[in-house]
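Troubleshooting entry. Yesterday's outputs looked truncated, so today I'm pasting the complete records for two proteins to confirm everything comes through intact. If either block looks cut off, that's the bug. Protein one:
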Amino acid sequence: GGYKLCDWRMAYGEIFAPWLRRFHFWGWVDLDIFIGRLPLFGFNASTLSGVDSVGDQGWPSQGPLTLLRNAPAINRIWRDVPRVRERLERPGIQRMNEWDFGRALLEAPEMRQRVVPWPMHLWTHARHG
């Protein structure tokens, strides 16, 4: 089904490289997530300048929300996921974009800074609703 596309998320940096050329970051969100003015929450050019991966809850890659620096070395890390080709060829979802890919990001020597957690406390703050 459609969930199989989640397994491919980690490879989008290479798959869509021609369309991502002018962007410093690329990533994914689930359909039920709204993103607004990220600089208001501390995600601007200066805070992201030394970061290669932004995930959720302190993990470098999450299914619902992930940002990755658009650099060839970072975009190739998905290839380090164990048995990635075999698992991508399977018809059912393997859920590699979260734990397996996150682990590959943590172990990758080319990652300059591992994790910057999203400000999750803002989601339930009284001023938001």
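Protein two, checking that the full record survives here as well:
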Amino acid sequence: SIQIVGAEQFSAYQGFGFSLRYRDNYQDPCERDSDGTPRVSIVAMDALDFRYSRSTTVVEQMNEEFMLREMNKAAAAFHPTNAFTRDLPIATGNWGAGAFLGCAQLKALIQWAAASLGGRSIRYFPFDQDKKLFGKQLQELSVLCVHRKKTTG
């Protein structure tokens, strides 16, 4: 995984993947540090690709080796690199659950645990229509875990 601190958006766009297209110029309204650096951190991390797997069941994806790989990848990506990124929330979505056929619910829980280990808050955006209900269910689970004082430790 990599982390880019101080990134700024210059272009508005539309689409995703092969349909991604430039739409217009973009004026980034993000908060800035005293030196003008945007208070933004972008993380890129790869996910396991299950497109060519014989089986894409949740049981297969919960294989210990796969789980450790994904958890370590997410934990490295979400760990704050410095004081600048420590208080920034993580905005994420269905990492590895679209084209790579990963289980969205499992990937969300992995990301939630990784963010918690790094002391970061998380905002989950399930963009796919079929996963909108899951976003609400994840929020309900979060409220329940906080109420019951459950932690990742």
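Both blocks look complete. Sanity check on protein two: Residues 132-147 form the longest helix (16 residues).
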